[in-house]
Amino acid sequence: MFKNKIKVLIVDDSAVVRQSLAEIIQSDPDLEVMGTASDPYLAAKKISNEVPDVITLDIEMPRMDGLTFLRKIMSQHPIPVVIISSLTAKGTETGIRALEYGALEIITKPQMSSSEFIHESRIRICEAIKGAAHARVKRKTLALTIHVEPKYTADAVLPPVQKHSMIKTTEIVVAIGASTGGTEALTDFLKDLPSDSPGIVIVQHMPEKFTTSFAQRLNEICKITVKEAANGDSVIRGRALIAPGNFHTLLKRSGARYYVEVMQGPFVNRHRPSVDVLFRSTAKYAGANSIGIIMTGMGDDGARGLLEMKEAGAKTIAQDEKSCIVFGMPKEAIKLNAANKILPLNKIAPYLLSITK
Fold this sequence. Notes:
Strand content: 15-25%
CATH architecture of the largest domain: 3-Layer(aba) Sandwich
Oligomer: single chain
Radius of gyration: 20 Å
Shape: elongated
Number of domains: 2
Mean pLDDT: 88
């Protein structure tokens, strides 16, 4: 538990949603609802009286939309923001812009469809708020880390890697994991890669549908092809596959061909997709033919998987503290001695290219 509770301001035009979010947030002993607001103007008044640690923000609201409010916050008085919104096709594009404007996470609004969904929503919302509270936003200089105990490990999806020799191939597979701050980090990283880069598989903690828009946006600005992973997609040079939200994505191999398997399954380290699941499958099927990269993010998802990759002969890289929005996942990997290299974000792509030529 934290020394002081994290104060949260809920901004949403729906009274039902405000009440549901308040109940979810209050159920966590580390969180406290500072107040609620039905639109950004009321939120601004509350902020003028007391500054919250984190704001949860809807996108579509009366009088002023959430995107405009977000831009005002980040330009005038930066406060960590978590977007909690319904996932419509139109909303996903707006949500991607919200990440570009400074929002740290996007979470699906909780729905009363099943007790399992409500429980998973509670986990996602509370962990996202905690991560946001300790993230770097503009003009902040200190990033703290929260260690999150896993709900399940990668054992829940696939068995541990058996030590065996992996046949060396000429093709290299790059597996990447990221969370809070990862959309910006991945954008900067992928934009620096040439069109003939090694095949890449990425897990970025993000809800369903948003991964589709995120992949499309990256595909428009990168030299390589970027797409949301579909079951059976080949991992080939010049292409990056992004795990779809709410689905684990595993690397598999058939002869000399690498491909991905997209599947459901339990949360691993409180996430689906999980970086540990991708990294373990990469250790198992690619071994020394792979490179693992762990980037900015809260918690420890991917730390053990990166160690498994290293033990299987892969080269492994962790993003350094200074360039991380949240130095959680890389820090946990470094503590396990899972990273061969610790590099600032702008040095990762050049290093990758230097060792794969």
